[in-house]
Amino acid sequence: MNVITSARNPAVSAARKLARAHGRARDRSGGFLLEGAQGLQEAMDAGARPVTVFATPEAAARHQALLDAARTAGAELRVVAAPLLAELAQTVHPQGLVAVVRSVVGTLDRLPPSPRLVCVLVEVGDPGNAGTVLRAADAFGADALVTTANSVDLESPKAVRASAGSLFHLPVIGGAGWTELVAALRGRGLALVGADPHAPDTVERAPLEGPCALVLGNEAHGLPERVRADLDHLARLPHYGRAESLNLAAAAAVLLYECARRQREAAGGR
Amino acid sequence: MNVITSARNPAVSAARKLARAHGRARDRSGGFLLEGAQGLQEAMDAGARPVTVFATPEAAARHQALLDAARTAGAELRVVAAPLLAELAQTVHPQGLVAVVRSVVGTLDRLPPSPRLVCVLVEVGDPGNAGTVLRAADAFGADALVTTANSVDLESPKAVRASAGSLFHLPVIGGAGWTELVAALRGRGLALVGADPHAPDTVERAPLEGPCALVLGNEAHGLPERVRADLDHLARLPHYGRAESLNLAAAAAVLLYECARRQREAAGGR
User: Fold this and answer.
1) Could you report the predicted ipTM of this complex, rounded to two decimals?
2) How does pLDDT run across B8-47, given as a tens digit for each residue?
3) CB distance B247–A162 less than 8 Å?
4) Inter-chain residue contact A260 with B238, CB threshold 8 Å
5) Rounded-to-5 percentages of helix, strand, coil across chain B
6) Of A22, A214, B57, B152, which is least surrounded by CB within 10 A?
């Protein structure tokens, strides 16, 4: 077995660059990093396409079936010394395995032609929140999820983990410019409904039965003024208790559920 | 200003014991720890009763108005040296202030006599999840939240932070024995509805219009068999996409919303 020990190895060097680029604006052509055998297995089950799999000699021996499957899916296997592997990983315990996976986050041309429900995250900052919202969007049948510029990277390790495979299940668009996004959503006949805990109207009054884009803002600052100005409706969830609002991921899940429920009901319970 | 520098000071020693006890079964008579000025301010706004506030000399000078309010609310102020304060804190940056607050988590006798909606967490393990569910239970008007034995401590720092004040808004019961809990819920006329992503029925078929207890299981293992055996219904959220399930906090928020919505609808849209 040829074990790579040098950081100057081209494959290792490219992956190290990816590891450093995570969380910032980056060239997606190089793919993104997934850590751990379970993470890779789940991602491959969900449709991820591995490009390169780095494994320590121990991990390569332990996860032979997974590595065979990755090779069948087109991946190259690189056995690397443990200290080199640790440099590729963002978690403390990468369990001896890090994979470079083909990027799935695209640009606005990936928006489907006739969506019923699109989830838009504006300047969302927490990767766990973003991944959890993506998972809920998938569960409730959204046709796409879009993040705007200055949002967290949906292919950062925490976001990928929180999405639990959903990253590979529906069209995901990253870093969209707001003006272009509004044009694309309106061009597809979607009503733009923003979530705002201080809106006068609750969701009952928003036209969630029809094709719509649910627009959610930053965890701390909500929706920026220039975004609000372009929206058709602002709506809040009804609150019966004393909590002023839900956290972002919980609010998104409820809104996506309510949209899906009302759309199915309007379509005759299909 | 008398600055405490010794860990043998009785107040410091008692608080250190609390810091070590967090997350495990513990005597609640000593209260629990809150960190940071913002955390204490929010908790006091929500109704928390501080017993002792520890602050470094710098923090005491910086947060004078807050400390005055805490004293008016009955708290004793102890100015401590920075290294001592760091030992009381669980976070890396406690910002010079740690408070001992009177415990609000009670036993089953705190369950209201005629609740409409009770949220039950069975062996939930993640404090962030538990706090987020508590916040959603508050938002959607639940009459109480109950955790069973082997669940995470709702007064651990992460749970308190995630609850965003809701810990102080509704009756919270911790460490309930399952048998006693079932008797208490049934005695109050509640239907026991368990959440299970693999249940044959979706929530539409569960009697959420009536008084009910929503029972949610552990993040990884779901509801234990002996708990399921005692439930009246098992229900899942409808899923239209490819995600198999939501994470616990998101699922709980949607179920609590759906319960509240159906109960209001049944009551004539009040």
Assistant:
1) 0.88
2) 888 888 888 887 765 555 667 778 988 889 889 988 998 8
3) yes
4) yes
5) 40, 20, 40
6) B57
